[in-house]
From TrEMBL:
The lineage of its organism: Archaea, Methanobacteriati, Methanobacteriota, Stenosarchaea group, Halobacteria. Keywords: Isomerase. It comes from the Archaea. InterPro entries: ClpP/crotonase-like_dom_sf (IPR029045), Enoyl-CoA_hyd/isom_CS (IPR018376), Enoyl-CoA_hydra/iso (IPR001753). Signal peptide: none annotated. This is Enoyl-CoA hydratase/isomerase family protein. SUPFAM superfamilies: ClpP/crotonase. Belongs to the enoyl-CoA hydratase/isomerase family. The keyword Isomerase applies. The keyword Transport does not apply. GO terms for molecular function: isomerase activity.
Length: 236
């Protein structure tokens, strides 16, 4: 259900959603396995991808139907998806979503939790839950307006429409279009990975401005102390 490959030389972990026959839709077991694969990572960069022609269709609708209208069970299922998305967002590693084919509902929401989203030309994006009386509840209503802005987020979610890679790039759902999203992961892995980790923490810092600036200065000081020889080498 979740396949993990490690490139130790480049410090990259590839986590693959591995249910191609179900467009990599996630059950409770799949979500828990994904959470564990992220938590177990010692690598500095994680690539999240799907096997086959889809990135992820989101929540497995059979699992949703099995909730049988139980409100409390539905809340618990939503909270599990939120927890997994938060684990991706909070991971010390830089997490790159490599999106090929459809990213729908919860699948898109997991991608929104990643630090970098890279789509192939064949990637498509949508929140179709409103077409059958639901909506994505794995943190999407929080992250979508942060990424798109409120107006575009509302239009995208309320219409349930599907956008292609070019429109996703224009909206800001993704930051790059690449035939092989791993290209971007390799670019990141070529850099000083401790500096990348610090940048992730600082950019995602939700403290007030003065607190953020204080933390930024301290982090810069730590890196200057750690990389003094590297800076000297650049000047030579």
């Amino acid at each position: 259900m979740i396949d993990v490959e490690v490139d130790a030389d480049r410090s990259i972990r590839t986590v693959t959603l591995d249910r191609p026959a179900a467009r990599n839709a996630l059950t409770v077991d799949g979500l828990e396995a994904l959470e564990q694969a992220i938590a177990d990572a010692d690598e500095s960069v994680i690539v999240l991808r799907g096997r086959g022609p889809a990135f992820c269709a989101g929540a497995d609708l059979e699992a949703v139907a099995a909730l049988d209208g139980d409100r409390e069970a539905a809340i618990e299922f939503a909270r599990l998806g939120q927890r997994v998305a938060s684990a991706i967002e909070a991971s010390p590693a830089v997490v790159v979503a490599g999106i090929d084919g459809p990213a729908r509902g919860g699948g898109l929401e997991l991608a929104l939790a990643c630090d970098v989203r890279v789509g192939t030309p064949a990637s498509t994006y949508g929140e179709p839950g409103v077409t059958f009386g639901l909506f994505g509840a794995w943190g999407g209503t929080v992250r979508l307006p942060q990424i798109l802005g409120e107006g575009d987020a509302l239009e995208f979610a309320l219409t349930g429409r599907v956008v292609d890679a070019e429109e996703a790039l224009r909206l800001g759902l993704i930051s790059r279009i690449e035939d092989d999203p791993r290209t971007v992961a390799l670019e990141i892995a070529d850099n000083a990975l401790d500096a990348c980790a610090v940048l992730k923490r600082r950019i995602r810092d939700d403290g007030d401005r003065k607190t953020q600036e204080r933390r930024e200065a301290r982090a810069f000081g730590d890196l200057v102390a750690a990389h003094a020889d590297d800076v000297d080498a650049v000047l030579e």
